[in-house]
Every structure is written in structure tokens, then in C-alpha cells.
Amino acid sequence: MFQFPSFLPIAAHFNIDPVHLGIIFLTNLELGYLMPPMGLNLFLSSLRFEKSIFHLSKAVIMFVLFEAIALMVITYIPELSLWLVNALGTQ
Length: 91
Fold this sequence. Notes:
Layout: H1 8-13, H2 18-34, H3 40-49, H4 53-59, H5 61-76, H6 78-88
């Protein structure tokens, strides 16, 4: 299993679940993929749909805002992202 060598001990010190930390990392990455100037998803969409980066940037603003709010909720309410893990008893 891949582990974040520098972040996992720090998260363990603050009692942050490794699954929760992974979900936070993935949500942050997707938020970065949607934001210019380095948004990989914007570049791929621009090539696929033959639209400019500026046009797509304006189109995803609402999604970026929703995802930022979701990131805050995921970060500060870990029970929402860990309920299935806890229900299945896999940890």
C-alpha cells in the first residue's frame, strides 16, 4: 500500500484516519485539476471539445466553488467520508 511518508506520521500524531487523509488529498488534487493556470482537466477538455481555456474556466467556476465547500465539509466532518469504512468494519 502506498503511504505518504512525510504526512502519515503527522496525521497519526493528530489522530487523523489514513483513509480520511487520502480522501482529503484526492479532493484537493481534483480542485487543483480544475483551476487555471495548471488545471490538467481544463487542458484536456479544451482539446477534446475545441473550446478555449478561458471559456472553460468560466464554465467551471461554480463547480470549483461547490468542490471547495465540499472539501471544507469533508475535512472538518470526517464521519461523512468514513461512514462506509466504519459500517463495513474494514479497519
